[in-house]
Amino acid sequence: MTTIDKPIMIIGAGIAGVHAAETLRNEGYEGRIVLVDRDTQLPYDRPPLSKEFMLGESSETDISLRSVESLTALRIELKLGVRIVSIDAEKQIAISSDGEIMEWGKLLLTTGSSLRKLQVNGSDLEGIHYLKTLSDAIAIRQKLDGIQQIVIVGAGFIGAELASSFKRLGKEVTVLEHAPLPLARILGDEMGDYFLQLHQSEGVHVITEDSVVQFDGTNQVEKALTKKGRVIPCQAVIVGIGVIPNTFLSDKGLHVDRGYIVNEFGETSLPNVYAAGDCAMWPFRGTNIHIEHWDHAVNHGKCVAKNMLGGDSNAYTTIPYFWSDQYDHRLQYFGHTKNWEATVLRGNMVDKQFTHFYLNASGVVEAALLVNQPKNALAVRRLIKQQQPVDPDLLSNPEVNLKKVHIQAKEDKVSN
Q1: What integer pLDDT is reported at residue 408 of this predicted model?
Q2: Residue 415: pLDDT band with limits 50, 70, 90
Q3: Which residue, 20, 159, 214, 331, could crosslink 225 as a Cys pair with Cβ 3.0–4.6 Å?
Q4: 70 lies in which domain range?
Q5: What backbone phi and psi angles, to 5 degrees, belong to 199?
Q6: pTM to 2 decimals?
Q7: Which GO MF term does the entry hold, naming one (predicted)?
């Protein structure tokens, strides 16, 4: 294992940063580990914010990633409320907003992402919220008792999960989406229509192909006005229109294209500087991609931490995965694709239990959406990982075990 005289510094104490720090210790690293974050709160888990925490089913303690005691036991120096404003790779230093200079031997950037902001007239009124942090979630939850009508701007996964949570709390929910169908950019029109009907069947008013142009109210938001002339009464608005990777730290020679560009080992274009999680653009099957989900942050952080210690480097090849809970639906998505050639449905959408496969022109499974079928997860991962053409008839037949589809594809590879 490489000996590092100066500390390993990790900037960002979110999912990727915390798991990277723990991995360094678990791999036997004995040197100093400094974990820095501009937030003043202890590291916490974000997925429950739109679901269990919003519903009051979990507390701040429940969603805490690690306690001070557990980090102290691992000799991880946690510095909260410290905003790093610049780094110098040549001098191997980081400078905080109050002028403190911190030395490092190796640096890991796990700076996460920030929310896109909606800039329209009235967007500064009270009652207009964003959900990214624990503070955001607390602020929303504290106001819910006095709110009956809520507008959600954006029908992405956060917007959809909040719509589900608010309906469970008995609120009147309107979702505004500028695209023709929710989630269609990721899941396609057929699945977009499925989720549109799902939310409508639960009593959510979903408005597509329209957007907010103004919020009205004296001090508190009272209504949302849309491009097509709709006037929607509301006492609260939640905006969820996507995120932007945090790449505010720069240094000459540090390559950035939406996120910090890293190779398969997590190395940036600067020596001894790495990046992982939401802030990184990493290579996946010939192209650089950006993933904003919990599973990726955990696995990328762990993999890159191991590579920082020297020795045999391990390429990051984990199949992307994310999940979402909406009403009585557990959604699981494996893989990554934007330009599929064909889709194959296995199961019945009416029964709310099915798997929707996305195939490329060669008949290879690139991604899959599982709806209330967690038992298919392992087989789906294998199908995506093997990158071999499959028989669509076998794939669509629920009577054929998915393991057999996987085996058949392997045998076809051997025979060819």
Answers
A1: 66
A2: low
A3: 214
A4: 8-114+243-308
A5: -65, -40
A6: 0.91
A7: dioxygenase activity
